[in-house]
Amino acid sequence: MKNIVIIGIISTITISSAFASNNHDNTFVNTITDNDFFKQSHFDFSTRNHWKYLKENAAQSKEVHSAWGQAFKFDYQSGYLFNVIGLDVTYDNVIKLGASDYFATRNLLYNHGKGFDKHNAKGFNKFTQRYAKIKLTNDNLSFNAKLGWHHLKDFGVISSSHHLTRNSYLGYSGILKYNNIAFSLGYIDSTLPRESAKKVHFLSNDRKNVIDHIFTTELAYQNDNLTLDYSYGEAKDYLRRHALELSYKPIPKMILRSQFYGSYALNNYDTMKIDKKEFENHAWHYASDIEWKETDWSIRIGLAYTDANKHNAIGYYGRHLGKNTRGRFNGLAAAGADYMRDGEIVLTSVLTYDFFKDNSTGLYMNYGEFNYKHDRLKNGEINVFNIWKPKSGTFKNLSILSKFGYGWSYKTMSTSDITPKLRHGRAQRSPTLSAETVIDYRFNLL
Known about the structure:
The protein is 8% helix and 54% strand. It is built from four helices and 24 strands. A hairpin with a 2-residue loop joins strand 18 and strand 19. The two termini are 24 Å apart. The model is unreliable at 1-23 (pLDDT under 50).
């Protein structure tokens, strides 16, 4: 039914435009299609083939987590009626191509059932975005707002991530800009996850409390060389979040960055059992990095530290504000694993080189250390990646990403409790092997 609806909308728009251009005497149709709502409309069709693989034994015997799917996306963006109001719609259809047990941890396919059995893996389809948009502009002042289901990428303390589809939220958001200053405000109460067409509410980590809503605000300043961004947000009665991001370009080839993220526990967080908590009362993650860019190569090196105390266990800074949410995080410590345990110092380096036109090959390396019961735990990973993205020619709308990585860490008490599982008083080593491919292609239809 949804397929028929979206095809009908597309056909109506296309036929109306063609009819108007070939029948100039029809004043009514010309008036409608000459309106900016239609004239400035864009309609894209894109595809994504995504495969993810992980082999690990941190919380159980050695297991393979693998999922493979194909996504088709229709994205319609209208112009603005009276230069004020518009309507955007995104429709996604995902087809399952393959899955192993534990496929659900890859967040690509819908888990239709209990547990992690590969037979639960299903495709899905959904209207990922459907929202009204408003804009008001003046010489130096502008206001843009959205109401309905929409993506929120790095908006306040909230974000949206893209696998086969991108997760979306139900609520409203707005940005008021004056010259180089922007003030943002957002309110959301439910989500459509990346791997599902099912509307879900935000939940506490133990899934016993529903988070009624998340409120966030942001104040940012940006010019050619400097960006200052502070965000504040609250998952009602659960977590309070702060995020401060700084970026400075002293010379054209160099960028200096810092990120500071903090979480504070509220009532419903405090009532959870200790094994479901990420930290006791509060957690902070501090990070800085420097990047140098040349024409055909670049290097970025970062250092980070986490403070997340948890009594008789390993606490950590959790990026998200509860189950079914995605939290803003632009530090380098989140890679194949999250290097944000209490007392952990992590060194990260990202090197890229363009061996030929439109192709970048690189290394992404993380190494972290922290103490637990007089034992110094060391963990890290090395990832090799390649991105081919032609800027012109026949394949200018194509991009191919592939990466492969090896990591080493330690066995944990469970998937939700990352405290080391000791044997004879010592942590046990746990290696990982991972791989991923993403193939994107986009068609401009209107």
